[in-house]
Amino acid sequence: MFKKLSTILTILSLFKATQGYVCDSNTCKPPNCMCASPLPPGGIDPKDAPQFVILSYDDAVNDSTFGILQSMYKGLAHSNGCPVVATHFVQNIYTNYHQVQQLHAQGDEIALHTFNHSKGASLKEIQSGKTVLSTFAGIPESEIKGFRAPFLYYDNNLLQNVQDLGLLYDSSAPTVRQDASWPYTLDNGISDDSDCNANGICGTLTPHNGLWEIPLYSTFYSPTDPHSMDLDYDSNLLNVLKENFNFRYNGNRQPMAIAVHAIHCNEPEDKLKMYREFIKWCIGQKDVYFVTYSQLIEYMKNPVKASELAGHPAIDCSKFNTYKVKSDAEICDGIDNTGNGMIDDGLVESCGIGNTYFSTCFGCPTSEPSIDNPTPQRNGNRITIPAQGCSEGTWDPLTSSCVSTSGSTYLESISPEVITTDENKNNVGGPNSSSSSGALSSHLPTSIFTISLITLFINSLIHFM
After folding, report:
1. What is the enclosing helix (H) or strand (E) of 454?
2. Is the pTM of this model over 0.90?
3. Residue 16's pLDDT band (cuts 50, 70, 90)
4. Range 48-314 has CATH code 3.40.50.300
C-alpha cells in the first residue's frame, strides 16, 4: 500500500512540475536572457553539440576532503591537454583557505555556499563569505560568480540576495525530468524541469532578470527516481552513471552533473576509484569536456558546434601558460614555482584563532573572521589579491604585484595523464538512440509528457483505490 502511495506521489510531483513556466523566445534573447529548453542553444543539432560534464563539490575544503579531491579527478586531462576541472561551492566554516587557493590555481572554480552553511542565508552572510574567500584564499572577487544553497533550500528571497550581490548564476534546483533544460536565465522564474515542490515554493518565485540557473542535474535510477547528490555506492553504480551519460549523449546532450560532498566519496574506498574510472571513461568519448560552471555559461552565451569549439572560453585553459614553474624563487600562489615538489614552501602561515584553524598566504587574522567582521586586522603586511586578479602571471602577496617567471608552464610541470579520445568512437547507438539498458526513457515533448503523466496518475490512482 505504502509503495503504491509513494509511486502516486512521485508521479503527482512530476505532473505539478510541468505546470506554470512560460517564456517567450521572441522577447527573451541571448546572451542576456535565455528560455529553458531541452535542446542545445543556438539551434545546434544535438548530434553536433559538445557534451559537457560538470563536476561539483559542496561544503568545506580541509584536510578531510582535500586528498579525496586530488584522488578523484586531479592529474587527468582531455585530448587538448586541458585538465579536468571542478566547481567548489565552499562554506567558510571549517575551511582551509590555502587548500582552496591551490584548487583555484589548478583551474577549478570557487563558488559560494554561505559562511556558516545556513539555510536561507542573508545577503550579508553570502557577501561575507565572498569577502573571506577573496581575502584569505586569494580568489579575485571578479572570479567568484556562483552560488548553491545549503540543503538545496532556495526561495525568492535567497535568489534575490544572489542577484543583488551581482553573482552570475545559482545552482540549487534539482531536476525532476531526465530530459531537463540546458542552463537558462531566471527572467521567467524556475523552469518546469526543476523541483520547486521540495521547498513548497512553486508559483511563488518572481523573475530575476539575467541571473542564470544551472540546474542540479539529477542522476536517474529510473525515469521517476532522480537523485540529485551523493549517490549510494553499490556494484551497479558505474553502470548507472554510464547509462545516464548515454541518455544525454545520445539525446539532447544536456550537461551531465556529478554533484557530491567530497567527504562521502571514499565511503567505501572503491567508490572513489569508481568515480575516477567513470571520469576517464567520459573523457574517452568524442566531444566530451569537463568544464566549470562559469565555463558552461560562457558556452551558453556563445554556442558553437563541437567541431568549432577549439579556442572557445568554455574549454580554454590558456591561463596556465602564464603560470611558470622552475623559477628561482617560490611565490605564495598555490603553485609549486621552483619545481621542488613543495607548494609555496616556507611561505604559508598557519592560523589558529578561537575555533578557527586554517593556513593562508595572506596573513593570519588577529581575530576570528565572522559574518559581521569578515576581514579582521591581519598580522604582517601581505596584500590581498586585487578584485580583478592578474591579467598575466600570478599574484605575489609579499611584493603586492603580479609576477611572471621564466620556465615551464604549470601543465608541463605536472605532466597530467592525457586521455586520448577516439574520434571514430560512437557511444551506444546513434546520436538519437535511447539508453543501452532500456531502463531510462527517451525524450517526449512536454505536451505528450504531461498527458502521459496524467494518464499514468489516473491509472495508478484507480489501481490504488
Report:
1. helix 446-464
2. no
3. very low
4. no
